[in-house]
Design goal:
The structure holds 2 protein chains of 2 kinds. Helix content of chain A is 8%, strand content 46%. By secondary structure, chain A is mainly beta. In chain B, strand 5 and strand 6 form a beta hairpin. The longest helix of chain B is centred in the N-terminal third of the chain and has 23 residues. The radius of gyration of chain B is 35 Å and the shape is elongated. The chains are: A mainly beta, B mainly beta. At the A-B interface, strand 1, strand 2, strand 4, strand 9 and strand 10 of A face strand 1 and strand 2 of B.
Chain lengths: 177, 186
């Protein structure tokens, strides 16, 4: 009986198809990095290029007493100057880092036009970097205010040029903590 | 042989240091926000209580300090020099017309303009009943703008007097008028 079972087993082995095997050695270099995006804030000016790192914010025509574009407010008018404001959001995304927060800085790309000053979150900007936040959270829209403070003086007397489009670039930098 | 092994060790160390320094550099991301605007010159007109408010001829404004105010001259009648308001001036101009008046201030300010002065005009919103005339500083108003001043200075309050002249044959009624002031930079 045992001899018969051995013969049957041997026959089954010879009946299988031949096989082959192999492996793939996959490699991926996962780099760390962060990116900063601008997003429009509800109730404020809609950004051009929202969702990118190169956006634009158009205040339109501004004045001390006249109408303003939708989304632009005028929080103060004093004897010497007035302020117009719009809000915008910044979202910083990170990957591959153990960092949980970032530092946000900003600076003007060039000197502000005559009669104008720029404030982000009430911090006046110049061509040197200014720290806006030291422990901002990744992955969420964080609201920021952009104030333009305009002198009421006439053009040529310390006030800004009128009737002429003015453009200023603000550079933002997010640094992982 | 020894110097060869030393060179390998040095190379490995340099690689390690380079790798470490690469990790030690904080990750940063930069972005640019372009801000666009056009500044326009503008001027503002507000009405204010005169410094003598409360005395005869200077009634208080409601919403003083704004460009939309109220001025209540009270109740008046031709017979008997009758008037209820203590802050108005009441006079009989002749045998058939009485006048009630009160003064207030107009302040026009400017921004981002080199204009030194402004023109001031005013008009009524409706034609008053027969026998009733609304005036500012003795200029009778109509539904078209009447020039009051041609070169007032910005930032300096000027006092204007509103007068209502009523003939004695005007029926009893509420006299109400909206007077629009217009300042134009010169």
């Amino acid at each position: 009986m045992a001899a018969v079972m051995v013969l049957l087993s041997s026959a089954a082995v010879w009946a299988q198809n031949p096989t082959a095997s192999g492996v793939i050695n996959g490699t991926l270099v996962n780099k760390d990095g962060i990116t900063l995006l601008f997003n429009s804030d509800p109730q404020s000016v809609t950004l051009g290029g929202a969702g990118t790192s190169a956006a634009s914010l158009d205040f339109g025509s501004i004045s001390a007493f006249g109408p303003l574009a939708a989304g632009v407010t005028r929080p103060t008018v004093t004897a010497t100057n007035y302020t117009v404001r719009s809000l915008f959001d910044i979202q910083v995304i990170q990957g591959g880092l153990t960092s949980t927060t970032y530092t946000l800085q900003a600076q003007l790309a060039a000197a502000a036009p005559t009669g104008l000053s720029y404030r982000v979150d009430a911090i006046t900007l110049g061509t040197a970097s200014q720290t806006l936040q030291t422990t901002a959270t990744y992955g969420v829209d964080i609201q920021h205010s952009l104030d333009l403070v305009i002198l009421k003086a006439a053009p040529g007397a310390g006030g800004p040029a009128t009737g002429t489009p003015l453009t200023t670039t603000i550079n933002f930098t997010a640094t992982a903590n | 042989m020894t110097s060869g092994r030393g060179g390998k060790v040095l190379a490995i160390l340099m690689c390690a240091v380079a790798a470490l320094s690469a990790h030690a550099t904080a990750q940063t991301s930069s972005a640019q926000l372009s801000v666009n605007l056009t500044v326009q010159s503008s001027i503002s007109l507000i009405f204010k209580d005169n410094a003598s408010v409360g005395t005869a001829g200077f009634c208080p404004l409601t919403n003083s300090g704004t460009n939309n105010v109220g001025l209540d001259l009270g109740t008046a009648a031709f017979p008997g020099n009758s008037h209820t308001s203590t802050c108005v001036n009441y006079t009989h101009l002749n045998g058939a017309i009485y006048q009630v008046s009160s003064a207030f201030d107009v302040l026009v300010t400017k921004s981002n303009t080199s204009s030194p002065t402004y023109r001031l005009a005013a008009q009524t919103s409706t034609v008053p009943p027969n026998g009733v005339t609304w005036l500012i500083d003795n200029t009778a108003l109509t539904t078209g703008f009447q020039t009051l001043d041609t070169a007032d200075n910005f930032g300096q309050a000027i006092t204007k007097t509103l007068q209502v002249q009523v003939r004695n044959n005007v029926p009893a009624q509420v006299l109400q008028e909206t007077i629009t002031f217009l300042a134009t930079a010169n």
